[in-house]
Amino acid sequence: MTQVPLFAALHLLGVALCLAFGPRRRPILCAALGFPIGLAAMVALVLALLAAGVFNRATGVLAIAACIGGCVWRLRRAWPDRATWIVLAGWTAGFLAVVAALTRYNWSILTYDSHYILMMGGILADDGGFAPKTLEYLGDYGIFVPVAQALQILTPENHLWGLAPVLAATTIAAFGVLLAQSLDALGVRFRGRNLAVALVAAATFSSYMLFRHSFYIHTNFGTAAYLMLFCGLFWLAEVEEAPGDLPVLFFALVGIALHRIEGVLICILFLALAVLPSRLPRRTLLGLVAAWSAAIVGWHVLLASGMSPTSQFLTPSRCYTLAGLSVAFLAYAALPFPRLHRAAPAIVAAAFTLGLAGAFALRTSHMTDSAVAWGKCLMQAPYWKGTWPVILGFAAIGLARPAPRHRWLFVIGVPAYLALILLLSWGRDPYYFGLGDSGSRMAMHLVPLAFFYLGLKFIPELMIRR
Fold first, then answer.
1. What mean pLDDT is predicted for residues 419-431?
2. Residue 109 — φ and ψ, nearest 5°?
3. Distance between CA atoms of 427 and 281, rounded to whole angstroms?
4. Distance between CA atoms of residues 422 and 262, nearest Å
5. Is 261 buried (19+), middle (13-18) or exposed (0-12) by CB count in 10 A?
6. How far is 388 from 456, CA to CA, in rounded Å?
């Protein structure tokens, strides 16, 4: 129960940001996005405070209050009506009840990685900045979860065991609400639609891998959550031609980029499929990419200053490479070549096809071992419980059915990311058949995104049949 006030504050922060910089005309969506967006925003704020060496309980509270106050000031000319406040109040009451239940007992699952992350979170909370050697130890994992765990300083606890299940519960709710609102945008309304949405959500998050990671202190569920939110929200803004909804996506991008050390590559892949072929105002899109790129460059330049050149994971050169890639993408997106940008889905598909072909040609045995072991994990391992056969089966059936507009973010993004996961095995030991295999865990990032698209594609079929 001691974590409830902190999580309530993060929820209110996220709701305020969504009302000020997101889909304010959809109050239930703003409410559902509250905790995930608030958490990502707070991680960004705390990271800035840590870089300045001034993070403590007082500055943490002031950061939340100042951010909410800024959002309220922005809303002064478009104050939400009474109906909006009723929706937000009702959702917040339900949120608090769920959080109270999930934080009553410690449900967390811990491994070596989890203990390492908690240790780093405690160090950040105690030091209030990046002490000597701290940055070097942060290069093995993404920074997001350690910084989130550093928020323990705002509670009496020594770690936030409720963070993982609360993020999971709010992600499930956001998935359902976002899918229902997206179907509204397509004009799909019929009796039983919400039941269909609930069934899709149940199929998504009842997978043992996702269920386990709902309590496992690690980086994979958060990556899956923010990837689904970014793609779903961008698709909705594209369909409704609502550029005003885009700024809040900055926090989803931060969530993806900072959860894992390869997060920048994931962001660039999906930004290429979202931003480049988009028909939304170019200035708004470039502003979003520029803000994200600035944050990524700032963090990775700081991280490079403390990295060891012999690190197994991030080194100074790799940090500068990731920072440079974000700047290079921004520069490419700013080029005045609309025809080239509209061809981005085909270019991405061709690039990953050629990349896989080259990788298998140069390291045939290594890549084949990884591909076979990884495929066996996804298709046969009991901890996946048939999730990927179901996804692939419905994807095959869907080839003969009409697709929603702007589908490339999903139909190219999912297979391209699968190809990226396989390509990441190039410079490491091959993937293996087992619960802890990195490739198997990374495949989890795509499950909510894949089921979200299947819901967009197949639920309208039920209305047509009716």
1. 91
2. -105, 130
3. 39
4. 13
5. buried
6. 18
Cα separation, 101 vs 242, whole angstroms: 37
Q: What is the pTM of this model?
A: 0.96
Question: How many other CB atoms are found less than 10 A from the CB of residue 385?
Answer: 14
| Closest C-alpha to 49, from 117, 129, 119, 127 | 129
Q: What is the pLDDT of residue 181?
A: 96
d(CA 7, CA 163) in angstroms, rounded, equals 8
CA dihedral sign of residues 354, 355, 361, 365: negative
CB neighbours of 395 closer than 8 A, spacing ≥ 6? 450, 454
Q: In which residue are the tokens 């994990």 written?
A: 377
Which residues are CB-neighbours of 302 under 8 A, at least 6 positions away? 51, 130, 135
Those residues with Cβ within 8 angstroms of residue 80's Cβ, 6 or more apart along the chain or in another chain: 19, 24, 27, 88
CA distances from 300 to 138, 148, 150, 303, 312 (A): 11, 18, 19, 5, 16
Please give the radius of gyration of the chain, using alpha carbons only, rounded to the nearest integer: 21
Query: Identity (one letter) of the amino acid at 259?
Result: H
How is residue 216 annotated by DSSP?
B
Cβ atoms < 10 Å from Cβ of 135:
19
- Dist. CA 218–CA 431, nearest whole Å: 19
**359-400 per-position pLDDT tens digit:** 999 999 999 999 999 999 999 888 888 899 999 999 999 888
Least confidently predicted of 276-280, 286-290, 321-325, 383-387: 383-387
